[in-house]
Every structure is written in structure tokens, then in C-alpha cells.
């Protein structure tokens, strides 16, 4: 078999055409950022900038340049030394109406003791040579079950539970009378205790407003008639056994009324002044603001004065041959027990003087002084009477 010989044909090398399109090969393109990614990046950058600005502002201490600004931006928890574990501070109230229109802030703190006592602070501010000092205008602390409000007359009214009431007194008194209410008015740069003019049926503005609210809500109370109010006062305070058919209304202009009360045995005539202190319309209640007989005068204490045991009582015009006595009433219109004889010595001219010793467990409470001069049995003389309002210290 003849052996194979190499082909004489030349070998051919195939070179791909570089210009021809390639097959099954993906072309590469550079990726472009998506729109959402750009937006998110911008928002993130803005958030970081905002955080930096806020953090910087929080470190800047802004100094108020007005009293209003100071009172509105003061940290009162530091001023009252608040103890968060046992105390709770109420909302701060701006009360410029209390101190003649000057900026003021009312701050209250409730204590976690058994009596839920209340602390009351009023702060003010006075500009002094580019300085703004914070001043304490008023402070009372530890008021059992205390309350505080601003009256319609722009006075500060503070209430607290009378913890010295006996069990018998709690039964005989109305719920409102179981609290002691004190009223304060701004005068010559300080708060001073004010005297609400009502002698009866209540002695404080808070009680009077509460009674008026009861009537406005549909309740019927005897104080809607001036004659009935005066006659009931005579029974409760003067201890007159019954009303006289000779009692009469002398005049009534719708705001102020005068009533004449008569007692036969002993003979006694008293003129009572009543006013609508809370509401001046036909639904307004009447409150006794004065009660006196003619001829009697009290020089000391004066109406609205603060008295302290022993209290001096002196004046003129009582019966020289009668028996003149003094009675003190507390805020519940209950007679206080005197530690000495309440009979006043009287000279031949009718001038009298004496001292009253008493125990007062509720200082600065509203009270009444009742002076009575009764003629001797069988005398034709008329007795005399005078009732005024005081503050009992």
C-alpha cells in the first residue's frame, strides 16, 4: 500500500474581521446615578445640617430683655426648689391683673403629704438699670387642701381646710364654711389682706360667689329677699327667738336695701344694710353689710381692722345702767369662747372700754364683733346693738 504523502495544498489561517459585529457578547456601558438616590442624598444632607443648627441653638442662652420675657422663660422648678418625688408643680399663670397691670406669674406646688397641702408663689419683675431681678411678691406654703383663684374683682383668693373644726361644728356648718378663705389686694406695692364686706350669711367672697352660683343653677335660697335675710341673721347671730310683724323694708333701689328690725322684749331697734355684692340683677343675692342701732359708736376696733388677743374694745353711747357685752364670731359665724368675762364696764356718760381674751386657732380669718347693750329688767329704755367685720389674728 503506497504510503501517504503530505498534501501539497497550502494551509489557510482565518483571521476574524474586527469590524464585524460580535455575537453573544454584551457591550459595557457606564452606570448613571438614579434620580431617587440623588434626592435621598440631598434630604439626608439637609437633615444633618438641620441637626447641627438645632444643636447649636440649644447651647445658646437667650437672655430676656423684658420683664414679660423673663417671667415667661424662667425655670420655676428651680425657683421653688421642686422635689419631683413628693411635689407637683401646676401650670404657670400670668396674672398681671393682680398687681396693677405689672407683669406677674402665679406658681402653685401641690405636696404629696396626707393633707395635699398647697404652696403658692407670685413672682414679679422690676427693671432696674438694665437689670431684670426676679422678685417674690407673695408666698404662702403648706395650706391644707389649699385652693387659689383670681376673683372677678382682680383680687387673690386663697382657701384652705379648717383643720381645727370640731366634729359638732362640721355637722352644723355648710361644706363651704369648713374652709377658711382669705382675700388679698395689691396696695402700694404689696399684697394686703382685704375684707369682703359681707357679715351674713357668709363672710368671704368665695362663699358668696358659690351661693350665687347655686341660685343661678336653679336652687332656691332665703337670701334672695332682703327682709328674710335680715330676719334670719337676727335669729342666727342676735339669738332673737322670733321675727316681729313690725319688721319692714325701709328702702330698696335694687342694689342696696335697708331693713328695720324690731324686738319687743327687751325693746331693741336695729337698722340693717344689705347689698347685692355679687350680682346686680333680680337674681342677685342679698348680703348684710351693716347692722346698728342709733346712738352707739365703736372707736376700737374699727371695721376691717385686724385684732389680736387681748383685743381692746372701746366706744361711747351705750346704756350706763344696762349690761354691755361683746361676742366674737369666727369665719363659720360660730361664737368664740372668751377666756374672760365679756361684760364691758360702762361709766355714767355711756363710755365703755374693756379687753377680750380669746384663743384663735386659725389666724387671719374673717370674723365679727357683736356689741350689745341691754337695759335692765323693767326699764323703758331701748337697747342698742352694733355688728362689724374684723380679721381675727
Walk me through this protein's architecture.
The protein has 393 residues and is of the alpha+beta class. Helices cover 17% and strands 32% of the residues. The strands form 4 sheets. Strands 10, 11, 12, 13, 15, 17, 18, 20 and 21 form a 9-stranded mixed β-sheet that branches. The longest helix is centred in the N-terminal third of the chain and has 24 residues. It is elongated and about 115 Å long. The N terminus is likely disordered.
Tell me briefly what this model is.
By secondary structure, this protein is of the alpha+beta class. Helix content is 17%, strand content 32%.
Main traits of this protein?
393 residues, 21 strands, 5-stranded antiparallel β-sheet, 9-stranded mixed β-sheet, disordered N terminus, 6 helices, single chain, alpha+beta
Q: Which H/E pattern describes the elements?
A: HHHEEEEEEEHEEHHEEEEEEEEEEEE
Low-confidence stretches: 1-28
By DSSP (H or I, 4+ residues per run), the number of helices equals 6
Q: Determine Rg (CA atoms, Å).
A: 42 Å
